[in-house]
Amino acid sequence: MQQELIALLGADKVSVATDDLATHAIDKWNFAASPEVVVFAESTDDVSKVLAFAHQNKIPVTTRGAGIGYVGGAVPIQGGIVLSVARMNQILELAPADGLAVVQPGVITKTLQDSAAEVGWYYPPDPASLKECSLGGNIATNAGGPRCLKYGVTKNYVMGLEVVLADGTITRVGGRCHKNKTGFSLTELFVGSEGLLGIVTEATLRIIPHPQRRAMLTATFAQFSEAAAAVQTILNSGHLPSALEITDAFTLQAARDYLGADSLPAGEAHLIVEIDGRNSAVEAELPELESLLSTAGALSIETHRDDAACEAVWKLRREFSYSLRATGLTKLNEDIVVPRSKLVELVEFAQELAANTGIPVACFGHAGDGNIHVNLMVEDYDDPEKKKPADAALDQLFNWILANRGAITGEHGVGLAKKRWFQQAVGEANFSVHQAIKNALDVDAVLNPGKFLG
Amino acid sequence: MQQELIALLGADKVSVATDDLATHAIDKWNFAASPEVVVFAESTDDVSKVLAFAHQNKIPVTTRGAGIGYVGGAVPIQGGIVLSVARMNQILELAPADGLAVVQPGVITKTLQDSAAEVGWYYPPDPASLKECSLGGNIATNAGGPRCLKYGVTKNYVMGLEVVLADGTITRVGGRCHKNKTGFSLTELFVGSEGLLGIVTEATLRIIPHPQRRAMLTATFAQFSEAAAAVQTILNSGHLPSALEITDAFTLQAARDYLGADSLPAGEAHLIVEIDGRNSAVEAELPELESLLSTAGALSIETHRDDAACEAVWKLRREFSYSLRATGLTKLNEDIVVPRSKLVELVEFAQELAANTGIPVACFGHAGDGNIHVNLMVEDYDDPEKKKPADAALDQLFNWILANRGAITGEHGVGLAKKRWFQQAVGEANFSVHQAIKNALDVDAVLNPGKFLG
Q1: Has residue A327 got a pLDDT over 90?
Q2: Residue B222 DSSP label
Q3: Across the interface, which of B98, B172, B182 has its CB nearest the CB of A422?
């Protein structure tokens, strides 16, 4: 296979080197499977040639962006070819006059954000890994982030795609227009398809005028339930913050252990309320929100008036993750979602789960849209004896989520990590629709086989 | 067929009465085709039974909401059954705590907007016909409207759907969560599918905190190009208005003829800039925008500070349409879209087209997203001798649109009206993907046959 691919693409785009196979066997999840060969595509034509070849020879192809996925989506579980688009990393066009950017899939998300900001424009989706992850991966997983509360997820910013289909056919869906009702929503169908329906080789992304200003309030509360109630109060009072982030007592304790007891004001729950807009709007909204937080019973409220101050809070927030890692335990990070009114019940359930299983559970995340990262902190997950009860605890978590009309993944995708609960989550008829669409576009299951459609 | 349907559903849900057949033979476009029978479904179960029956007997089923479509999408061009969901018109749930409403497809769009507003929440999509059209139709066509510039189109507000598939199977896609990455974007796939992939029997729609205030500036300019430049200036200055609406000289002349010469300030182009947000934000932004408009060369600028004043402008704006109708000509309203930087070229092309064909062309619409309603004003369109050159002019328009990377429909859908340009618009490979998906979900073409997939 290596020789045939070299004949198609040239030697510098094809590797079977041990280190290349190893780095392309994993993403950020806890499972590795080696490909037989890694292809570094440099153009749409390269991708098309690889897929035509793979299609003809029924060789699995797993597409890879920056390899920052959290669910094993880019892990080539059936071997074959890993097709990396990392070298396709050019911003082809930045066109504020049309309100769009045209990018290759390997562009790092923050690179686009920065380039847009330089000309006064904004690409809002902000997954936590935005400095490392690529837009192709964001599109494949329909990535989210804190600011999706106000701005929506990746799919809300994809206007058009160039896609290579399973047999190598190149097609375009959507386009350069901000509204487009020409046929089915094919652009959206490819967004979030996790490499199972086609390979994105170019994306036309919506950018919007950059907000003039952002600012933030942080508050602590005696109880998680009070912080959750404050979230509802804020939204019910006609405010739509750019982000509403909540953190539970367990996570705060880990942060205080790691960063020092004085790193955070007292309280068993922490809330971040970020807003953006025109200068004057932000200035006027801050005291309104402060008053709401105060009435909601906040123990402490701090105001962060500019970009640097906001970034410092986000940095602290990221330290929460490092604090959990510093416990020495394996963090099973599940990006579940609940209807927003169920936030308190979710955290209560997490506490019960921790008590019943002896596995600590840390909850923090995007309170505004109910997308909470529930982290099971597991000792020696590689030890089968420890893995078994941890996996049983995950089953309990996901059963609870589904019983409460939640979703098993909000922004990471299904990949391998959530595969076990996928059919239960969508139900039989929905699963059949998935299969029908997969069969319609990739009947031989060449594209990313072994994932949530088996 | 009538008797079998009565046996399935009961006599009061099935009609072959002449007037029912006649009213269900048309929508707002200019073509009629009578169904053999009209079914008034009252439940998901009714819809499922009809589709199972139709599927078994290969009878065409054309779904109908309020019948307000502009492209013949609900016209049963191959006869068979028109399945009306107009009786399924209940708001099942309004849940601000979860940020959502659950509705049946027959709910009138404005009814939901009003119900949400009463509890301080907002359902933004605002097609011009929102007092008459229904949410099921909005979903089928992915309806837009002026405020989509800031808030996005219908698909951005659909969280979950109950859908009856071609064979009568009931499925659910998406759900009650604001983020959901469980599998493919099936919710989005059904949104905008114009009745070709399934029938929506329930929708879970996102609502957001209601903006506290809205206000508006209206301005006139000596030239259309100056108004279009002002649109770019506003967006390039970091403002994201809720609406940016532009009107050309021909339309303004018709309005002055119809409403009186003094109904509008002097100028060959008219711009509406609507903003919303917190009180203080709106107050501060109005003078900033006024200054931008002034610098952009506006001949007149008027400020409209509250809801009532804004509504008066929207009422005037609707009169522009009536003014065109008052010319006595048939208005062929094409909701084309261009990349925003092409606005001026579009209107110049429209003027040339008018000059070359003798058919007046009126342009007005959503400048912010490039979605301009281009209205060809045709005399005696029913007369084949007049229809022919008008259709040839439409061909010229759509050829120009596609050559300039525009879209043939921004918010009305393809239906019958745009069918003739659909394949050209999407290209061969994309068309094949459409067919593959249609075949995967409705291989016998029971659902809305004769539309853009033949």
Answers
A1: no
A2: S
A3: B182
Sign of CA dihedral B51, B52, B53, B58: positive
List of long-range contacts for B327-331, beta carbons under 8 Å, 24+ apart: B327/B254, B327/B360, B327/B377, B329/B360, B329/B377, B329/B378, B329/B379, B330/B30, B330/B377, B330/B378, B330/B379, B330/B380, B330/B381, B331/B362, B331/B375, B331/B376, B331/B377, B331/B378
Domain boundaries, chain B: 2-84, 91-209, 213-403
Determine the topology of domain A213-403 in CATH.
Answer: Vanillyl-alcohol Oxidase; Chain A, domain 3 (3.40.462)
- At residue A173, the 3 state secondary structure works out as strand
User: By CA distance, what is B372's nearest residue in A?
Assistant: A179
Q: How many CB atoms lie within 10 A of CB A111?
A: 18
Q: Which residues in B lie closer than 8 A to residue A371 (C-beta atoms)? A: 177-179
Give how far B261 is from chain A: nearest CA, Å.
34
Amino acid at position B306, single letter: D
Pinpoint the alpha helices (H) of A92-176. 109-118, 135-141, 148-151
Average pLDDT value for chain A? 96
Interface test with B, best of A178, A372, A438 (most B CBs within 10 A): A178
Q: What is the pLDDT of residue B321?
A: 85
Closest in B178, B186, B210 to A430, CB measured: B186
Q: At what angle do helices A343-357 and A224-236 cross, to 10 degrees?
A: 160
Work out the average pLDDT over A126-144: 96
Does B188 sit within 8 Å of A189, measured CB to CB? yes
Are A201 and A162 in contact by the 8 Å Cβ rule? The answer is: yes
CB proximity list for A358: less than 8 A, separation 6 or greater: none
Chain B: nearest CA to A199, how far in angstroms?
Answer: 14
Helical ranges in A168-223 per DSSP H: 186-190
Cα A439 to the center of its chain, rounded Å: 26
Distance of CA B178 to the CA centre of its chain: 24
Q: Which of B152, B123, B144 is nearest to A158 (CA)?
A: B152
Q: Alpha-carbon distance A379 to B429, whole Å?
A: 51
Nearest CA in chain B to A167: B429
Which residue in the set B170, B182, B239 is minimally distant from A426, CB to CB? Answer: B182
> Can you give the length of chain A in residues?
454
Provide the pLDDT confidence category of residue A321 given band limits of 50, 70 and 90: confident
- Rounded Cα distance between B219 and B301, Å, is 4
C-beta atoms of B430 and A170 within 8 A: no
Residue in chain B lying closest to A206 (CA): B369
Residues 6+ apart with CB under 8 A from B117: B210
> For B239, which of A209, A422, A433 is closest by C-beta distance?
A209
Residue ranges of E strands in B229-355:
243-247, 269-277, 300-304, 330-337
Say whether A91-209 and A2-84 share the same fold: no
Architecture of domain A2-84: 2-Layer Sandwich (3.30)
Q: Which residues of A touch B212 (CB under 8 A)?
A: 238
pLDDT score for A177: 97
How far apart CA B220 and CA B300 sit, in angstroms, is 5
Give tens-digit pLDDT for B260-300: 999 999 999 999 999 999 999 999 999 999 999 999 999 99
User: Which residue of chain A is at minimal alpha-carbon distance from B433?
Assistant: A441
The answer to whether A418 touches A381, Cβ cutoff 8 Å, is no
pLDDT at A148 over 90: yes
Chain A closest-CA separation from residue B136 CA (Å): 16
**What does the mean pLDDT of chain B come to?**
96
Q: In CATH, what number does A91-209 get?
A: 3.30.465.10
